[in-house]
Design brief:
Elements: H1 2-9, H2 16-43, E1 53-59, H3 67-80, E2 85-89, H4 101-110, E3 115-117, H5 121-132, E4 136-140, E5 152-158, E6 186-190, H6 199-208, E7 213-226, E8 229-234, E9 243-248, H7 253-261, E10 266-272, H8 281-293, E11 298-302, H9 303-306, E12 321-333, H10 335-343
Parallel strand pairs: 1-4, 1-5, 2-3, 2-4, 5-6, 6-7, 9-10, 9-11, 11-12
Antiparallel strand pairs: 7-8, 7-12
Helix pairs in contact: 3-4
């Protein structure tokens, strides 16, 4: 049902039945838009003022826009510049998980930079200030966080999907009205190497918010590591010419597929699950069975998926080489202005 509704929202279904349902989704979108606008106005009346810098990194659409990679990128940069940083994430806290896949992945990769998970970001920020003496908090998925006064609003936009059909949920993929883009300080266009011309998106952003900086970026593959040994990185040529199985439960699985294919790896089977999918024993047994049928013994997944796979869960894949692709965001245009804008927060 979730996939069907998403396909309706992204106009992948045509014909009378789809149009009939899309009409009712459009009506729901109008109602959703009214509710969101009301919430924004209400929460912005008296936003909480924190005693540290607040950087929001978020998106206006559903789907994988690369915001988590940008959170990691910005956190590392500010830490290297001597700032004491914490990341605040709402997590997903379901099925008994204390930390969702994205904050778990961030926590592992960022090391000594604390990642605090909780629905109440104000309490999380107060904890970060008290326990870690931070001078900066980064709101992961913070665009829809209206209760906190922000010093910098960064919006990630996938160059592949843009704004979809420009309708709000559930008829489209917008989480907020497009007019909200007028409040952003920086737009980061992601996956620019996987899209065609950027002129349309950049032209629209310049029109709706001419003062904002527009940055271009890509996701760069760094190497592979065994899922139970993240400290030993294999080169990008490690699997060149080999046949593999992919599986992922992320917002943009097509980008993962293309990253692997561009490394000269032969994809014998690509299994796609819902974003944030909680893998069961049956899922992994099925992956193992299908790989075995094709005589494929190398299985690759993403770091986000690896964060959801405990040693116990991985038992059905025993006997296979299970690798994880490590990626990082790389800015390809306007890197220096982007850094300058970050550091300007700390000038008095």
């Amino acid at each position: 049902m979730k996939e069907y509704l998403y396909n309706l929202a992204t106009d992948k279904y045509r014909g009378f039945p789809a149009s009939f349902l899309q009409f009712f989704l459009l009506l729901a979108s109008f109602l959703y838009g009214i509710i969101i606008r009301g919430l924004v106005l209400f929460y912005k009346l008296r936003p909480a003022q924190l005693s540290c810098k607040v950087i929001s990194i978020g998106n206006i659409t559903l789907g994988g826009t690369g915001k988590t990679s940008l959170v990691e990128f910005v956190s590392r940069y500010l830490k290297a510049k001597g700032h004491n940083v914490a990341v605040l994430s709402r997590g997903y806290n379901r099925l008994g998980q204390e930390m969702g896949d994205e904050p778990s992945m961030l926590s592992k990769s960022l090391g000594d930079i604390p990642v605090i998970v909780g629905h109440n970001r104000i309490k999380g920020a107060q904890r970060a200030i008290k326990e870690y003496a931070v001078d900066t908090v980064i709101l992961d998925d913070g665009m829809q966080q209206w209760r906190i006064k922000k010093n910098l609003e960064i919006v990630t936009i996938s160059s592949k999907q843009g704004f979809g059909n420009r309708h709000m949920l559930p008829r489209g993929i917008l989480r907020q009205p497009l007019s909200s883009l007028g409040e952003a300080d920086i737009f980061v266009l992601t996956k620019t190497d996987l899209s065609g011309s950027l002129a349309g998106i950049k032209g629209y952003l310049s029109k709706v918010n001419p003062q904002a900086l527009i940055v271009e970026s890509v996701h760069e593959a760094l190497g592979f590591y065994a899922i139970n040994n993240p400290d030993e990185i294999f080169s990008l040529n490690h699997l060149k010419g080999k046949d593999v199985v992919l599986f992922s439960g992320i917002g943009d699985p097509d980008s993962f597929n293309k990253l692997i294919a561009n490394l000269g790896v032969n994809i014998g089977l690509d299994l796609i699950f819902d974003d944030h999918h909680n893998y069961s024993e049956e899922d992994l047994t099925n992956i193992a069975s299908r790989a075995q049928t094709l005589s494929l013994n190398i299985i690759i997944t993403t770091e986000k998926d690896a964060a959801r796979l405990s040693e116990e869960k991985l038992k059905p894949l025993k006997g296979f080489q299970v690798l994880v692709l490590r990626v990082a965001l790389k800015i390809t245009k306007n890197e220096e202005p982007f850094f300058a804008r970050l550091l300007s927060l700390y000038t008095f």
